[in-house]
Amino acid sequence: MFETIKYEVKEGIAYVTVNRPKAMNALNTEVLGELHTAFEQVAADDEVKVAIVTGEGKAFVAGADIAQMKDLDAVAGRAMIAKGHSVMNLIEAIDKPVIAAINGFALGGGCELAMACDIRIASEKAKFGQPEVNLGIIPGFGGTQRLPRLVGRSMAKYLIMTAEMIGAEEAKNIGLVEKVVPAEDLMAECEKIARTIMSKAPIAISVAKTVINNGYSLDLRAASALEVEGFVAPFASEDKMEGMTAFLEKRPAEFKNK
Ligand code: CO8
Question: pTM for this one?
Answer without folding.
Answer: 0.97
